[in-house]
Design goal:
InterPro entries: Cell_Envelope_Assoc, DUF218, Rossmann-like_a/b/a_fold. This is YdcF family protein. Keywords: Membrane, Transmembrane, Transmembrane helix. The protein is an alpha/beta fold. The protein has two domains: 92 residues, no CATH class; 134 residues, 3-Layer(aba) Sandwich (Rossmann fold), CATH 3.40.50.620. Helices cover 50% and strands 9% of the residues. The protein contains ten helices and five strands. Strands 3-2-1-4-5 form a five-stranded parallel β-sheet, sandwiched between helices. The longest helix has 23 residues. The protein is globular, with a radius of gyration of 20 Å. The two termini are 31 Å apart. The relative contact order is 0.15.
Length: 264
């Protein structure tokens, strides 16, 4: 069942991505208009409307802010027994082909782990991430993380790796099994701020109350800098936010998250 859901989700998102879907609508609408059918204006307007909205309005920031502001980072964590780093920042296939660790726009997850390991020298560090793509390679995200952190001096018995998970739900379930947290322990959860609501919901459903430690913000409050990033960045920002909302709804329907929009 889990394997089927994983493949269905990947295939669904391949076509349902807002930027891809809007482009397909635009192409279909234009082709229909060229063929002399006036109803082609409808898909063309909706398709181009998405790109116009991203270009001329703060839509990407508007839909991203509620996600990123849902779980603010605590001013002081106090006693920390462990730190969980969610996968998603590592490009394992590119790492294999180039021979050096490759990271994407969520790289702050990996660098924050090193900073927290130095800040809390007694805390356990757990990375969770396996093969999150349909086309898999020989290395997992955990393999790349292990090599990257070792080159940065983060290694040893307190550093652990979970390498079987493929999505956020499996991150929560499998890392809980690996870490076996004891009652009263405090574990920080490190992931992108916009991904934190879904992540916290999954960990709560898995029976693990964690302390959110968001990183990788893409918006600033108060409207500052919303139009500064290039159009391509804002397209990706808007698409990522939509993906999170779709993921929250899907996980809630599947019973994988504690609430439709988890809150502190």
């Amino acid at each position: 069942m889990e394997d089927a859901l994983f493949f269905v989700s990947k295939i669904f998102w391949l076509f349902a991505r807002p930027n891809t879907f809007a482009l397909l609508l635009s192409v279909v609408g234009a082709a229909v208009l060229i063929a002399g059918r006036r109803w082609g204006r409808v898909p063309l307007v909706f398709g181009l409307g998405w790109f116009v909205a991203v270009l001329l309005t703060p839509l990407p920031a508007w839909i991203t802010l509620p996600l990123e502001d849902r779980f603010p980072r605590p001013a002081e964590a106090g006693q920390v027994d462990g730190v969980i780093i969610l996968g998603g920042a590592v490009e394992q296939l590119l790492t294999e082909r180039r021979g050096i660790p490759a990271l994407n726009g969520a790289a702050e997850r990996m660098t924050e782990a090193v900073a927290l390991a130095r800040r809390y020298p007694q805390a356990r560090i757990l990375f969770t991430g396996g093969q999150g793509t349909v086309v898999t390679g020989q290395e997992t995200e955990a393999d790349v993380a292990r090599n990257l952190w070792a080159s940065m001096g983060l290694e040893g018995p307190r550093v652990g790796f979970e390498d079987q998970s493929r999505n956020t739900w499996e991150n929560a379930v499998f890392s809980h099994r690996v870490a076996e947290p004891k009652p009263g322990e405090r574990w920080l959860l490190v992931t992108s701020a916009s991904h934190m609501p879904r992540s916290v919901g999954c960990f709560r459903r898995a029976g693990w109350e964690v302390t959110p430690w968001p990183v990788n913000y893409s918006t600033a409050p108060g409207g500052r800098g919303w139009f500064d990033p290039p159009f391509s960045f804002r397209l990706g920002q808007a698409e990522w936010a939509v993906r999170e909302y779709v993921g929250l709804a899907a996980y809630w329907l599947l019973g994988r998250t504690s609430a439709l929009f988890p809150a502190p």
